[in-house]
Amino acid sequence: MKTLTAIFFLLHVALFASATVIHVGKDFPVQQIQAAIRQAKNGDTVMVHGGWYKEGNLLIDKPLVLLGINRPVLDGQKKFEVVSIKADRVVLDGFRIQGSGYATLEDPCAIKVYDSNEVTLSNNILDDNFFGIYIQYGKNCIVKNNQILAYGTEEQQIGNGIHCWKSDSLQIIGNTISGHRDGIYFEFVSNSVIWRNCAHHNIRYGLHFMFSNDDAYITNIFRHNGAGVAVMFSKNVKMFDNLFEENWGDAAYGLLLKEINDSYIFGNRFVSNTSGIFMDGTNRVKVEKNVFENNGWGMKIQASCNDNEVVANNFLGNTFDISTNGTLVLNTFNGNYWDKYEGYDLDKNNIGDVPFHPLSIFSVIVENNPPAMLLFRSFIVTLLDKSEKLIPTLTPDNFIDKTPLMRSLEL
Amino acid sequence: MNRIVKFVVLDILKNRIVLVYTFILAVLSWSVFSLEDSSTKGLLSLLNIILLIVPLVSIIFTTIYLYNSAEFIELLLSQPIQRKKIWLSLFMGMSVSMLLAFVIGAGIPLLVYEASSVGLMMLGTGCLVSVVFVAIAFLSAIITRDKAKGIGISIMLWLFFALLYDGLILFLMFQLSDYPIEKAMVGISALNPISLARILILLHLDVSAMMGYTGAIFKDFFGTTAGLFVSFFLLILWVIVPFYISLLKFKKKDL
Amino acid sequence: MIDIRHISKNFGKFKVLDDINLTCSKGECIALIGPNGCGKTTLIKSILGIVLPSKGDIVFMGQNIANSFQYREHIGYMPQIGRYPDNMTIGQIIEMMKEIRKSSAPDEVLLHQFQLKTLFDKKMRTLSGGTTQKVSATLAFLFNPDVLILDEPTAGLDPLSADILKEKIIEEKQKGKLILITSHLLSELDDLITQLIYMQDGKIRFHKTIEALKRETGEEKISKSISMMLKSGRHE
Fold this sequence. Notes:
In chain A, 10% of the residues lie in helices and 37% in strands. Chain A has 411 residues and is mostly beta strands. Chain B has one domain (2-251).
């Protein structure tokens, strides 16, 4: 990271030959960051040396590079928005920013970016702020390798870790976010990528998508968030290689899809969630090569979902693999591995010769009558399930995987 | 008292039925764990063993043993020992033997393959279920002098607790599904030792689903440490109450 | 030594013992006889506390036995049919009894005479009826009790063993112990007993010393004198 920063710095030096470096610190002539910013010209670099800076709100209104040396602390004293960026091409790197104000109307942040392009926020530690990073009307901004932590206990009393609104072409990379309301929040954000972040122990969602199209989130870890990950009212979202783990609760999901169209869910792992994926009003989504392991429900597919394809996934050790609340099924299941499959394979082509019914009668009963869960795994229920498997009467008969695999896929 | 316990245990442990029971438990447990590709499936098979076979063998074997020991009990009664001590010694001897059979047969493979919270919970509830059904057998053996009738009562009790009870609850649940019956259901389930044992294991085995949307009632009751204590306390009550009633009857019984 | 006062026992509507009064004293050897189902065994079991009487008191060495168990230290009991846990060995049974009685100096005469030591490792399940009876007899005499209660002691024993047992009974009688025997085979008991109790329908028909019995009936044989008694009804 240090070399990258150095290259970046050198690039700036090369581009703006006239750029100068201003040092800030108690051993230097300039003691205040705000003063240095006032002195600096566009493209200058401000090197802030280690120390405790309580300057209220710090406004960066020209393209500058601010580098923290020995992790200087910017303290908002629980009163101010700590850093406001209102210029393009600002770089903010290596700071510790803490104690932003607290207000429900103004959403004070550690760092807020207003209508700016090509802003880079990297290697900062954001500790105990209301909002962490807030980008509105940003474009081509990079948020990278920040550690964002807060200690919220209730949804209303804490903001989001990384909050992006009406922005485009953002890159959110390698950040760790915990203790906020939503780890990462996207609303009206398009053409953006979220890559290699870890959002854990946030109060509501690890990642929350609203009205954000043509985005991708890849190789992230979402663990033990209040309700998992929610992707809502969006289309063309690509969800690859993420891990959704330990999202427990009565409205908790590994991944909640609501009003999602034309998206692709590939190579993810859903482990130990109440529901791996919950689909509502979801159309033309392909779910491929994912692993559903030790979830209460592998997938819950509401009757409002059409034309979704569930292909080549592993279902391992889930209490229920699939459940639904309707009787009409317009989704297809093909070539998955179900560990509950008890069929045979006479022609040894690794595809079971009898179709698999992933919907157990008891999951239907529980759907309509939740306290029935109390009877799960009792003799009477096992009997009920076995007889339903032999002669399906209550479960939709087209709810089948005609080509179930005999061995699990190596995913 | 432990003078008699020692000899009763020595006698029962050499009993062919107990040896076969231990052996079958061992074969089943080792095979379900080594044959199934995931230990979850092994646990599920073992769950059925604990919920069906363990109570059945415990109750039937104990009943038969008690009837066969009638003359031996008479002999003990002619010795300077309190009636209470004789009955308690028999109970202890019986329980220790069934526990040993269960722990050796099912407990060891369980600990080898699945030394997790699920495994430990299964071991604990399996032990308790064994003793509960020994206690129930003591009650059904003291109710009637007739051996055939006594064994009949035992089998009926097993059928009721292991199979019928949950069916009745399911039926009730459908009949009353329009009412808020969650709490009542938890209460009613807790009144059957087998259901109680099953739910305790379920909470660990299907933790993801149990914490799901029915989770509230489960968590409130079974999920908390207090609930766990209450559950185990109820199971222990299922040992104490039937045994105590049988003890009262034994004190007044003519042999 | 044993005082039985107004004992009654019902099994359901059936009256097994009907207001029985009986006193047995030291040094006596009392035969308790009567037809099947007359209440002999129930009476014995009442004394042992195995059956709890519906009414009345039993006083043993001056102490009421109700809710008491310590008095049984002084009793050796040999049941009619001995059955022991299948898989215990003779050795274990004897060891267990010793532990229960906490006895340090047991009387092992019968153990030797019946040659049970060689069978110590045999399981009870594998023993013949006769051998089981020998074990029962040995246990009854093992702790040198003051009172011996023997329910059909010679039934199932071979003549040789029956003789050994008889000798032992005489020996104990001479030591001044109270011995209660129930039996059908009267002739065997002729030379042992000092008193005779005849029971019928839960009542004692008569209780006499042998001398009185023989004197009253003028018969030499006990069996004959009993039938004389029953026919004449003189006991009434």
